[in-house]
Design brief:
The structure is a single chain. The chain has a single domain (2-134), classed as 2-Layer Sandwich (Nucleotidyltransferase, domain 5). The chain is built from five helices and five strands. Helices cover 44% and strands 26% of the residues. Strands 3-2-1-4-5 form a five-stranded mixed sheet, with helices on both faces. It is α/β, with parallel strands linked by helices. Helix 3 (97-107) packs across helix 5.
Length: 137
């Protein structure tokens, strides 16, 4: 089963996709934010093109475990996405995904100059990999 992960940001949306066995997450692409409806339509179309059977939307939380501002935006995006597709959508804790993506780039030896770019698709891959590991069968 292929799974698509979404790292919803204010300016851009990172996407990652699993392999067909649902074992390994790979960065897919970054979509620049236009509007919630247009962004949801683009994600829905990519999901259909890639024969995705589940969409994971990363959601962040505050110290008390409640969705923070970004987490509430992600939830609203997930609702808009539900209007665009019949594919099941799950909100998933994305805590530290961007920091993990940054650390992974450092560990891989990526230069400081190249690390300054988008981390969105890599963060989406981190979100998806955490989901896949939690749901191994």
């Amino acid at each position: 089963m292929r799974i698509l992960a979404v790292d919803h940001g204010e300016k851009s949306i990172g996407l990652a996709i699993s392999d067909s066995t649902g074992t390994i997450a790979n960065p897919l692409k970054v979509i620049e934010h236009v509007s919630r409806v247009i962004d949801a339509a683009q994600v829905s179309e990519l999901a259909a093109q890639n024969q995705v059977e589940l969409i994971i939307v990363g959601q962040s939380f505050d110290e008390e475990g409640r969705p923070n501002l970004a987490g509430r935006r992600a939830a609203r995006f997930a609702e808009a996405l539900k209007m665009q597709t019949q594919i099941p959508i799950v909100l998933w804790d994305e805590s530290f995904s961007t920091q993990d993506a940054r650390a992974a780039r450092i560990e891989l030896g990526v230069s400081r100059k190249k690390r300054a770019g988008h981390l969105d698709e890599l963060a989406a891959a981190m979100i998806l990999q955490s989901y896949l590991e939690q749901h191994k069968s």
